[in-house]
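Much of what follows relies on a compact textual record of a protein's fold. With that in mind, consider the following protein and its fold in token form.
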Amino acid sequence: MSTDLWDGALIDVTIWHARAGDVSRQFRYGACYAALPLGPLEADRLPLRPERGGIWRIRRRDYGHRDGGSFTAFMDEQLVPVGLGHCKTTLVTMPRSPFHGFNPVSFWLARDEDGLRAVLAEVSNTFGERHVYLCRNPDNAPITRSHRLSGEKLFHVSPFLPRDGRYVFRFDPGPGRFGAWVDWFGAGGELRLQTSMTGPARTLSRASLRRSAWRHVFQAQKVTGLIHWQAAKLFSRGIRYRSKPPQLDRTRSEATQTEGKNV
């Protein structure tokens, strides 16, 4: 029996990065993400509850406007102006570990009875900044596994990549699995970086949450450490280090351009 992300789930993901161009390099690692439907999440009906103690935690000020406000209100601000206010949302995220909560990307999945309508990719960097990319078809048609949605890169993530070019997003919302693929094309149109986060979904229960939390107690620290380790490897190979530019005032943008053959 498959697990629907809109019922709540744990996702055992494999995260993969592959760089090309100035240097060819790839790496992968495992993590456990949680799929949290906003209605039950904000009503405290899920095993993982906002602002509650535990090995893993969900903290409101780690998301959205970072002001501790309602998840639902934040998503309404994103979806209502583009005609998707009727959708239900599930947050796919890596919970906060003890003493640490850095999360490179969370995905807010918005769907209705016809399927996935939009994905809000909330991207954070190690400098405490964030940007959200709203991915949807121009006519709000359902997003299928073959849709490729493109938008301008406007956020500084890595000191070894410039803040230009464009992203191409692709998503698979299940049931029974989750997949997100994000490719970065440089200003000249060349494919420079491929990333993916894919894995099977399983039931979210108190028991499964407890087992996963103990298995991945310090996964947020692990992810931060891996980011710095890979950065050190790039630096050792002579890749140019770029100082962080001031963040743009525009912290929300859309990825609505279709790439390739979308069916």
About this structure: The longest helix spans residues 219-236.
